[in-house]
Design goal:
3 domains, 4-stranded mixed β-sheet, alpha+beta, 4 strands, ABC transporter transmembrane region fold
């Protein structure tokens, strides 16, 4: 619809400027009103087109975000990714990269579709007015695209690393906010400032390189766009002076030339956005691959502890190894616990003691199913009937009620029972 509107505008503009050059006042006023009518009709068409594109992008982002979140939080993939450092800043990839991907994908898809329609619509108009101008346009657009690809190739990795470094810098600031009291107790402001400055220096240096390359690309693309202003008139001037075309044909040819050239020169005009788009795709694809790897039941070349559900807790000849990354299949694993057997019956307690690094927490990770690499048999109740308290207290993003019931926040407990529990631990106030 937008391309059709542009075709109508090109013809109305032809008649309008011809009437103006020939001092044909009745025709001038008639097509001036036609122009106004086209604008009145065209404005809502363009607005609705943009609104529809953004709406589609919003729903697509919702679908993709839910898909990535489900994969991220199922099978404890988030734990595997963060504990092994498989990828950097998964939060930024979900929050920002998906948003950028959906918006830019739709933008480029619809732009390409419009470009195809523009080429079909305006090439015939341009060819009927000036064959030399049509041939020149094709050569000019192809040459410009090749040069833009050569210049813009360097922008993709620079944009990729810029996204990473910006996310690292933002994470450092969030880390200070989340650990403000601990930092204040330690008086670690100088060290934190040094760490943050190092991260920002990486942001600064990479962006400095990026804008340098963008400057080089802009030298070409700006000249490429400015040349379009004069080239159609330059090529068509001899034909006009010879009396073979009307003055309005020049304006229509110029409009058609700019539309077709814009369609052919998509890479040139969008090189910065395309390089940023490609970098975002690389980050999302890496995230997707990592999620697929962590959802596999077992790792190739490794053995896992056999888990059996029962009402008792028992470890039978358990040997526990450190987890193994997929990239480190040939690397040696560290053995934390070897050939351990122990049983804890209902009503019994067991205190595990040992020096730091002996594997106490690792043993609990194995019982919870977080670490499975090793041999032996683990007998335990269903995890829904067990409670593990992490070393660091965890506060959820929710209400006090949800904090008390976490993770079973939908359980039916009245307020009196919850207040009674708070009173038992001296937190009623």
């Amino acid at each position: 619809s937008v391309s059709g509107l542009n075709v109508i505008i090109s013809y109305v503009g032809n008649f309008f400027t011809t009437a103006l050059s020939e001092k044909d006042q009745p025709t001038f006023w008639r097509f001036l009103f036609v122009y106004a009518g086209v604008f009145v009709i065209g404005t809502p068409i363009v607005v609705i087109y943009t609104y529809t594109r953004q709406k589609l992008g919003l729903y697509w982002r919702e679908w993709m975000t839910n898909k990535f979140l489900n994969n991220y939080l199922q099978n404890r993939s988030y734990y595997e990714i963060n504990s092994k450092g498989a990828i950097d800043n998964p939060d930024q990839r979900i929050a920002e990269d998906i948003k950028s991907f959906t918006n830019q994908s739709l933008f480029f898809l619809l732009t390409i579709l419009n470009s195809v329609i523009d080429v079909i619509s305006f090439t015939g108009i341009l060819w009927s007015i000036s064959i030399p101008l049509s041939i020149f346009l094709i050569i000019y657009a192809v040459a410009g695209t090749l040069v833009a690809v050569i210049f813009g190739r360097k922008l993709i990795p620079l944009n990729f690393y810029q996204l990473k470094r910006e996310a690292d810098f933002r994470y450092g600031l969030v880390h200070i906010r989340d650990h403000a009291e601990s930092i204040a107790f330690y008086r670690g402001e100088e060290q934190e400032l040094s760490q943050i400055r190092q991260r920002f220096t990486q942001v600064f240096n990479n962006f400095n390189l990026l804008i340098g390359w963008q400057r080089n690309v802009d030298y070409f693309t700006t000249g490429y766009r400015y040349a379009v202003i004069i080239l159609p008139s330059l090529i068509m001037a001899p034909i006009y002076f010879a009396g073979d075309i009307k003055f309005g044909d020049i304006s229509q040819a110029g409009f058609a030339f700019s539309q077709v050239l814009g369609a052919f020169s998509l890479v040139v005009s969008q090189i910065d956005n395309l390089s940023n788009f490609a970098a975002g795709i690389n980050r999302l694809d890496k995230f997707r691959e990592t999620l697929e790897e962590t959802t596999k039941v077992s790792e190739e070349g490794t053995r896992e502890i056999d888990i059996t559900e029962s009402s008792r807790l028992a470890l039978e000849k358990i040997t526990l190894n450190t987890p193994l990354n997929h990239e480190e299949i040939n690397e040696s694993q560290k053995t934390l616990v070897e050939n351990l057997s122990v049983a804890v019956n209902s009503g019994q307690g067991l205190l595990i003691v040992g020096k730091s690094g002996a594997g106490k927490s690792s043993l609990l990770r194995a019982i919870a199913g977080l670490w499975k690499s090793g041999t032996g048999r683990l007998v335990r109740p269903n995890l829904e009937k067990m409670l593990f308290l992490p070393q660091r207290p965890y506060m959820i993003l929710g209400s006090l009620r949800e904090q008390l019931l976490y993770p079973q926040v939908n359980q039916e407990f009245d307020e009196y029972e919850l207040r009674k529990i708070l009173k038992l631990v001296n937190l009623e106030d």
